[in-house]
Amino acid sequence: MTAVEQSQSEDYQTAQAFASSWNHTAEGSSYTLDQFEDWMHPLSKSDLESKNVLELGCGNASLGFHLVSSWNPNSYIGIDLGDSVISAKSNLALTEKANWQVLQDDLVTYKGDPQDLVYCIGVLHHLKRPQTGFQSVINNTKVGGSFHCWVYGAEGNALVKFIVEPTRKVACRLPWWLTKHVIAASMVTPFFLYAKALKAFRRHSFLQGLPLYEYSQWIAKREYSFFKQVAFDQLVSPQTAYISKAELEKWMNDDERIDPNSTYIVSRNGNSWKFGGKRYK
Questions:
Q1: For the chain, how are helix, strand and coil distributed in percent, rounded to 5?
Q2: DSSP string over 4-50
Q3: What is the Cα gyration radius of the chain?
């Protein structure tokens, strides 16, 4: 894909916004191995070991890093439209493996050799046409192969949509450093304290009805800088959708290539969805 073709993609602005995030993070994966395995569940190492794997929307390869270094695929290809491919290549080089490749391309139109597994984590909800991005996931999955995705949920995110979304519509137009070090930092500090408090007092069951309780239990395992990075990722994007379980069911039901007996939709942290299955046509 040429530089001109990349810049003409309807998702180019979003990809470059995320590149400004990923290319200014510390070297290596931003996630722990436990976080990677949580995102991939119900898939496990045994499902991917010695398989050919494609990641659509790889960012700086924070997930691909753990896949390549710990899950031992036969091959890994990461696709991203933005300049985050620069940090993706650097991070994957740290694995000292040679079975990976990173390509700068539009995941919506990309068509390579069909793979044993295609996954897309945290990207579809930032596309202008999320369902078209999902169709590309299936396009690149071989017959008999598996697919796995994760998206923000329409359910469980009322507080985020009320507070974060109005700010995002302004912050995404500002210089990345201002959004990250001023806006994201100031907005995430109260939530950092809230999440840490919920985790500290998790034995009190009456707290479980509070907003973002499950999500707080997950993210509170991490340090302040991770909170800030997550907030920056949410604020820097020009495009964000919150997708309902019913919509995901429709996506999969409408695609006759997907084996209806293989599909799953799993709630993650009470505010997002992991979903996947197998292609049989």
A1: 50, 20, 35
A2: HHHHHSTTHHHHHHHHHHHTTS-SS-SS-HHHHHHHHTT--HHHHTT
A3: 18
User: pLDDT tens digits for 51-103?
Assistant: 999 999 999 999 999 999 999 999 999 999 999 999 999 999 999 999 999 99
By CB atoms closer than 10 A (0-12, 13-18, 19+), residue 34 is exposed
- Residue bearing tokens 């209806």: 260
Return the pLDDT at 26: 87
Tokens for 150?
A: 């994760």
Tokens standing for residue 134 = 């999902």
Q: What is the pLDDT of residues 228-265, one digit of tens each?
A: 999 999 999 999 999 999 999 999 999 999 999 999 99
Backbone angles phi, psi at 265, to 5 degrees: -135, 120
150 close to 122: Cβ distance less than 8 angstroms = yes
